[in-house]
C-alpha cells in the first residue's frame, strides 16, 4: 500500500483545460488539486453512518479527476477497502443484533412462564 505522501504526489496533465481560456486555467488547475486533496481526506474520514450517496459522489469525483491526469487508482482502492470494512462491520452488527433479539425472546418466554 502506498504511503499518504506517495499518494498525494501527483503529476496531472490538465489537458482538458487547454479548451479553457488561458487566464482561467491556473485557477481551475488549483481547484482540481484542492478537490483531489479534499476527496482523499473525505475517503479517509468515511464513517459507517455516512449514506452510500457520499461514497458514490466521491467515486464520481475520482473519475472526473482521472480525466485531468490524476492517478486515482490507489485512492479508489483505499475507498473500496474502507467501504468493504464498513460492510463487514455492518454484517457483524447484524449478527450481534440477531443474537440479542433471540436472547430477549428467550428472556420474555421465561418471564411469561413464571
Automatic annotation (TrEMBL):
<dbReference type="InterPro" id="IPR007930">
    <property type="entry name" value="DUF724"/>
</dbReference>
<protein>
    <submittedName>
        <fullName>Uncharacterized protein</fullName>
    </submittedName>
</protein>
<keyword id="KW-0341">Growth regulation</keyword>
<dbReference type="Pfam" id="PF05266">
    <property type="entry name" value="DUF724"/>
</dbReference>
<keyword id="KW-0175">Coiled coil</keyword>
<feature type="coiled-coil region">
    <location>
        <begin position="80"/>
        <end position="114"/>
    </location>
</feature>
<keyword id="KW-0813">Transport</keyword>
